[in-house]
Write a structure and sequence with these properties.
Number of helices: 9
Shape: globular
Distance between the termini: 50 Å
Helix content: 25-40%
Number of strands: 16
Strand content: 25-35%
Largest sheet: 6 strands, parallel
Length: 297
């Protein structure tokens, strides 16, 4: 099987490209390759309609092994496929592999066996700060607000508006704090996190404005890959989140079988899909707290 290596440097990054020809003919016309992402630090790309001459067609794989500063993340085609075709994946989860993948993506990760241990850590870690808490069933179940109130005087909780305060005003107060806490709808073993939002305040505050952001979740939200993470966000978390609100409880995913109907409801909560590939560069820390319990939706 003939092959050839190429080396090039871009932004001080050395990339080794290896072309593997699966079918070889004397004359080439088009190149068609299926894209997948199965092996750490390996990307397979699909190139098509590259005319080399006016003769026969052939197929070959392009295998690109890369060394990067942050590790591997889903490429464009993998992301598109995951969004268009989210799928259930029941493969067992390897927590150690998950943590390593997240750390490669510049997230700080802590794993706890119990929610009590996680809350004790948060109480010791977050003190004398201006804190904001986003909408999260996980944080409610863990009673994070009361725990942090013991060591922080200034806490804005989206679930605890000031008297007479509108939702919008409360949501705006969660922006630009020292610390913001929320959860995720799903986290993939490959190192990405997924959130779906209807209003956008939770996602917005998790992406910009605070110096530190903490994502707190149970192991029930971890999936093997990005496609199954998006599937979980749309077909598991979203219907359950729809049921907890009076208006959104009329959405088909809440009234009918718990799955996404891609509805046009005015109270649809799936208006934005956010994929966290790596730590946002404007933040000091994006920290992920994984708890070996089933928590939240």
């Amino acid at each position: 099987m003939p092959y050839q290596y190429y080396y090039y440097s871009k932004f001080n990054l050395l990339v080794k490209v290896k072309f593997i020809f699966l079918a070889y003919y004397s004359n080439f016309h088009n190149i068609t390759i299926n894209s997948e992402l199965n092996t750490p630090h390996v990307k397979r790309y699909n190139y098509s309609n590259k005319t080399l001459n006016n003769s026969k067609d052939t197929n070959f794989n392009v295998l690109i092994k890369t060394t990067t500063f942050g590790g591997l993340m889903a490429n464009t085609e993998t992301t598109i496929n995951a969004v268009i075709n989210p799928q259930i994946n029941d493969a067992p989860i390897d927590i150690e592999k998950t943590i390593k993948a997240l750390e490669r993506n510049n997230f700080v990760v802590h794993y706890f066996e119990t929610g009590d241990e996680a809350v004790d850590y948060l109480r010791s870690r977050i003190q004398n700060k201006r804190v904001a808490i986003g909408d999260s069933r996980t944080l409610l179940e863990l009673n994070v607000h009361d725990a942090l109130s013991e060591v922080n005087d200034d806490i804005t909780d989206i679930q605890r508006p000031l008297p007479g305060e509108s939702f919008r005003d409360t949501a705006l107060r969660t922006m630009g704090r020292d610390v913001f806490l929320t959860s995720v709808n799903a986290l993939s073993q490959t190192g990405e996190m997924v959130n779906i939002d209807g209003t956008g305040n939770r996602v917005a505050a998790s992406l910009f404005g605070s110096q530190e952001v903490f994502f707190v979740l149970g192991v029930n939200k971890i999936t093997p890959d990005l496609a199954s993470a998006i599937y979980r966000a749309r077909n598991v978390a979203a219907p359950l989140n729809s049921k907890k609100n009076k208006k959104s409880s009329l959405n088909p995913c809440a009234k009918l079988e718990e799955k996404c109907y891609d509805c046009g409801s005015p109270d649809r909560i799936c208006n934005a899909l956010t994929i966290y590939y790596k730590k946002m560069r404007n933040m000091q820390t994006m920290e992920i707290i994984i708890i070996n319990e089933s928590l939240g939706f």
